[in-house]
Design goal:
single chain, 445 residues, alpha+beta, Helix Hairpins, Glucose Permease (Domain IIA), 10-stranded antiparallel sheet, two-stranded antiparallel sheet, 4 helices, 14 strands, 59% helix, 14% strand, disordered N terminus
Amino acid sequence: MKRYIPWIVIVMLAISMIAGPVTIHGESISELNKKINELEQQKKEIQKEKSQLESEKKDTEQKLKENQNQQQSVQSEINQLDKELTATQNQIQQKEKEITETANQIEKLKNQIEKLKKEIKDLEERIKKRDKLLKDRLRSIQQNGGDIKYMEVIFGAKSFGDFISRATAVTTIMNQDKDILEQQAADKQVLESHKTEVEAKKSEVEDRKVALENQKQELAGLKSKLDQQLAEKETLMAKLEEEEQHLEHYVISIEDEQKIISAQEKALEKAKALAQQELQELEQLAKQQNNNNSSEGNVAVSHSGGGNGMFAWPVANGKDLISSPFGQRWGKLHRGLDFAVPIGTPVYTAAPGVVIMTSVEGDGTMRGYGNVVLVAHSIGGRSYTTLYAHLSSIAVSSGQTVGRGQVIGHSGNTGDSTGPHLHFEIHAGGWNGDANAVNPRNYLP
């Protein structure tokens, strides 16, 4: 963010003392009054600009604060999502463990079922044998008229001992028949019970496995949603961080411009004070002239200095030391000329003016320029600003009046510099980056 701040640094006394003679008559005083009014108007414009910048800065800082608050909120949401994702992942792992255990149970039940099948087969063999025995018994009963006459067997005994033997045999046969029937019934009941129990348990475990698989799928779906939400929050966070950087740079840019405007305001105050001083001197001279009844129309006041409005080389033999011209370089505008000079080479003011700003490397004002000096000039009714960068030392201060060819510092290698040199720029009006940079070669001897 850079805006052109129209201002004419008319350093009346400083420039007039250096540039040439001043004619004292009514028109000259009128011109000085006009220029003082112009300076006052420019001061008001700068104050208005300062107010606008301060308002913009407050608005930007508020946006920055809101951005940072939103970042904190989003970060809290991201942290919560991370916790939920961790918990969900743990639940999924637990379900996978339970599914594995259930699968092992199913495998064990399958083995039990196989074992039971063998037992069932054995039971079926015993039942089959008993069925045959019972069928043989029934067949024998049918062959004897459908009934075994146990009483005839007993009372057909020929002696008491025979009676006892026959009675015992009958009892044994009857008990055996009873045991066979009871065992048959018990075996069948055990068989059915085993079948029912194993099938029920197998069905239960299989149902549990299905339920666990469903729960795992639900958790996987939840994890997918949480992953999507997390990705969205992280994308939003990245955008907020990028916006924060832009806002911070914007605030810094505003602060840079505020410093430049403050320097311009000081220069205007200096110019106004010098102009008022010159006005007083002219009025005093005019008064003395009137008192002396001088017939001469103009009184010439000589001032030392040189220059006729043309810019001078900022270093000695500058014409032969240009190492990089004005123009496009590496995809962007190289705003001035580079002079290949060793560190410590004196750097001269290209024209009379007022130092509106000095900046040292690391103060965050003129990034990339290292130690830099900006000087405002009024030449031929137009305002210019010259810039001298990458200095090793600075010999002037903000608000100081300087003459053409005055040493303002020494060349160096500070800032974004690839080697010792002086970087020199000329701007039509106030310094405004690429917007009003002009080719210095067109303004030098």
